[in-house]
Specification:
Rossmann fold, 334 residues, seven-stranded parallel β-sheet, five-stranded parallel β-sheet, 2 domains, alpha/beta
Length: 334
Amino acid sequence: MATSAKRAVYVFSIVPRLAQLVQEALPDVIVINIKPEGRVASEQTKAVEQLKEAEILLADNNFIGEITHLLPKLQWVQGTWAGVEGLVDLFRDKPKPNFPISRMVGDSFGQLMAEYTVGRIISHERDWFECHQNQMKGLWLHEKKIHYYRSIQDLVVGILGMGNIGKEVARCLKAFRCTVHGYSRSVPSDENRCSNVDKYWHTGELSSLLKECDYVVNIMPSTPETRGMLGGDVLKVAKKGAVLINIGRGDLLSEADLIRSLDSGWLSGAILDVFAKEPLSSESPLWKHPKVEITPHTAGTSRPEDVSKTFIQNYKRFSQGLPALFPIDWNAGY
């Protein structure tokens, strides 16, 4: 009796060990690992030829939009990143793909970004950077925020974006008895309401939220509605001493508007993991601004074990003829 041919999965990603983990989890599948030749699509001529037979593709988002139209047999694509605004922008005025493209969604992003948020708040409140500077000088000082710091339970933290990640950030903050406010575009249904949020705010109420919060944490995706949302004079009404933590997308406000908000005293600090253009230019004034703390878009990374877990979950659905989870909604923009 003839046996059916094994199904092939093509992996096209710089995420380390990803193909290996997929193969270990799916031993009856042929996993074909094609290494990207560079970081941009224009450098992938050889790789595109190797991917011509791909029906199922697990790939980094920066390659997907530029090469998938060259792969005629594709039936489903799983991205390795959570952010898809680049793909949405690319296809905004073009015919959309005739196959689903799934976003990378998983509990890991919520965990990692909640850790980042809590860790950064504690570090900022206790001024551990200054502690380290004192250590290098051999100084034992009990002064300023090093000694007279606020506890998380003393703070009001507003979260912009109450999806799965926002809910996990709220849960972790609430574990420290923080007062948590959440901002969403619409009133959540009872089943979608987060029990760890003390007060919800919605479209049209942003100014009221800003007046209440010691920290404002942005987790919102980049969409036409969110771009520039904190720009202009919006932050002028922020609570005295407020700090912005941006782990969502960098186009929430322009670099110029952010610096203006800091220099005008509307914000006392900005903790930034994302930027409108990445990598952040070495010429950017943000690098040396005394009120800014920068990390290189690492608050929630695509770890190989997490990407493979999401892909395998979706692959099993695809193999059963079920629609893949987390498809890009081209109209919503994420």
